[in-house]
Amino acid sequence: MKPVTFLVALTTVAVVLSTVSASPYGGWQPIENIHNYRIQEIAKFAVGMHNYENNFKHPLRLVSIRRGLVQVVDGMNYKLDVMVAEGNSLDSRGSMYRTEVHVRLGAMELIFFTRIVKGLN
Fold first, then answer.
1. What's the distance, CA 12 to chain centroid?
2. What are the DSSP calls for the chain, one per residue?
3. What is the pLDDT of residues 69-121, one digit of tens each?
4. Which of 109, 111, 80 has the alpha carbon at shortest distance from 97?
5. By C-alpha distance, which of 114, 107, 82, 115 is closest to 4?
6. φ, ψ for residue 8, nearest 5 deg
């Protein structure tokens, strides 16, 4: 499947760097503020791309971000653990997914989106 990328604001890298402690080139570092607006945008992008790639058959909805790591490379890699729910369900049970998104020059690319835990309460 051909990767699909979308443009985002060029300020993403600068804003996110301020939410990371020390970011040595190439090493994964924890994201201190996973509630940052740009981190939320990246998580929403990942869920949206997953839905798009699966033809919206069982669309997922972002509930929260549980954990995040960032890696400075030719751009930035973000590895996020996200809690999602199916559709518009108000059920408190959801599933945890791990995703990785590459951001470079304002474009985002979904690297992977994999379920890691199903049916959390």
1. 13
2. ----EEE--TTHHHHHHTTBS---BTSEEEBS-TTSHHHHHHHHHHHHHHHHHTTTSS-EEEEEEEEEEEEEESEEEEEEEEEEEETT---S-EEEEEEEEEEETTEEEEEEEEEEEEEE-
3. 999 999 999 999 999 998 766 665 689 999 999 999 989 999 999 999 765 44
4. 80
5. 107
6. -130, 175
For the entire predicted model, the pTM comes to 0.75
The 75-86 sheet, strands edge to edge: 5-7, 107-120, 94-104, 75-86, 60-73, 28-30
Residue burial 50-83, b: 16+ Cβ < 10 Å; e: rest: bbeeeeeeebbbbbebeebbbbbeebbbbbbbbb
Q: How far apart are CA 115 and CA 84, in angstroms?
A: 10
Task: Please report where in the chains the tokens 């699966």 appear, as a residue.
Answer: 54
d(CA 12, CA 41): 9
Q: How far apart are alpha carbons 39 and 16 in whole angstroms?
A: 7
